[in-house]
Amino acid sequence: MLVQGTPTRTIRPVVEGGKTWVEIIDQTRLPHAFILRRLATPEDAMEAIAVMRVRGAPLIGATAAYGMALAADRDASDAGMAQAGEGLVATRPTAVNLGWGVERMLWRLLPLPVSERSPAAWAEAATLCEEDVEQNRAIGRHGLDLIRAAWKKAARSRPVNILTHCNAGWLATVDWGTALAPVFAAHEAGVPVHVWVDETRPRNQGASLTAWELAQAGIPHTVIADNAGGHLMQHGRVDLCIVGTDRVAANGDVANKIGTYLKALAANDCGVPFYVAAPGPSIDFRLAEGRDIPIEERDAGEVARIQGLAEDGSLVSVRLVPEGSACANPAFDVTPARLVSGLITERGVCAADRAALAELFPERT
Asked: Residue 164 has what pLDDT?
C-alpha cells in the first residue's frame, strides 16, 4: 500500500554488506512518526512481536518466519532452530499465525542438511510473505462483492458506511490487510465508502493505525469512541461491519481484539451484517470451539496509561487512572459463530460453521 504515495510493505529483507537483515515499520511510533526498524537477530524479532512493533496475526506469522531465518544464519542446527522457535512462540499466545509460521519453517528446514538451511529459510519466509499478500488481495475481491451489494441496496445514492474494530488493514499483514482489503478494493473500483474507525482502547490501534492508513489511501473515515458503534447502528448509520481475527476455531467462533464481541452483539440486535475477514492460516482446525482459544492478558499499564503527541512534538505517556487502582487487560475476546454473518476468506465467503469451513478448506480437516 502507499505511504506518502510510495508503495510500501510492513516487512522486507534487506541485503547489506553480504549480510541479510529484516526491516519493519515500527508501529509503536505511528501515527506521529514513520520509523523503519532493523531486526538483526531472532531476539529482535521476539521483542518486536512482544511489544507490538509488529502486530496483527498475519504480520506476526511473517515476522516469526523471518525470525527463524535470522536464527538459521546464527545456528542452523536442530537445537538452534528449536530454541529459536520456542522463543518466538512464547512471545504472544492468541494469534495462531505465530505458531503456524514457526511450524512451517521447521517443517521446511529440519529435513535439510544444516549447511542448506539458511538460504532455504530466507526463501521460505519470502514465499510465506508473498502468499500472505495474495491471500489478502483475494479477501479484498470477495469482500468487494459484499460492499457492492450494500451500495446497490442504498440505491447508489451515498457511500457505504463500514464499521471496523482494531486494525486489520495492511499494517496488520504484509500488504493489503484483511478486514480493510475489501475497503481498499472498493476504493480502487470507484465504489464510495466511508469507514467508522473504533479507537480500540487500550492501545488505540484504530485511532492510530487504521485512521493513518486510510488517510494515506485517501479514504473517507471518522474515528469514534469504542462505545459509539451501537448508537450508530441503532440510527441506521452503519451498513456492515468488517473485522479481522487472530484465530478462528473449527466451529466458526472468532477471537479478535477486545471489544469485538460487543460490536457483534450490537450488530445482531440492529440487523447489521457482521463479517470477519479470515485468511486460511488464521483458521485453527485443531481447536473445536472458541472457549479453547488462549486469551492473552497484557500489561495493566496499557490500560492505566496512554501515549500521545505533546505540544512540543514529543511523544509522551500520561497516567489515566488513580494510583493504586488495579487494571485488567485481556487483549482479545471471542465472538460466537452465531453472531457472525460470514467469514471472508481467500477462497470465498462462507458461513461461520464447521461444515462450511471444512468444505472450503478440505485439506485442513
From this structure: 98
Q: How far apart are CA 258 and CA 262, in angstroms?
A: 9
Architecture of the domain whose range is 2-130: Up-down Bundle (1.20)
Q: Which residues are catalytic?
A: 246
- The Cα–Cα gap between 227 and 84 comes to 41
pLDDT per residue over 232-274, tens digit each? Answer: 999 999 999 999 999 999 999 999 999 999 999 999 999 999 9
Q: Which part of the chain is CATH 1.20.120.420? A: 2-130
Q: What is the pTM of this model?
A: 0.95
Cell numbers at 311, concatenated: 505540544
Q: For 145-364, CATH number?
A: 3.40.50.10470
Distances 153 to 112, 149, 157 between C-alpha atoms, Å: 55, 6, 9
Query: Does residue 118 sit in helix, strand or coil?
Result: helix
Contact, 102 vs 89, CB < 8 A?
yes
Is there a cis peptide before residue 159, judged by omega within 30 degrees of 0?
Answer: no
Beta bridge partners of 2: 7
Q: How far apart are CA 299 and CA 212, in angstroms?
A: 25
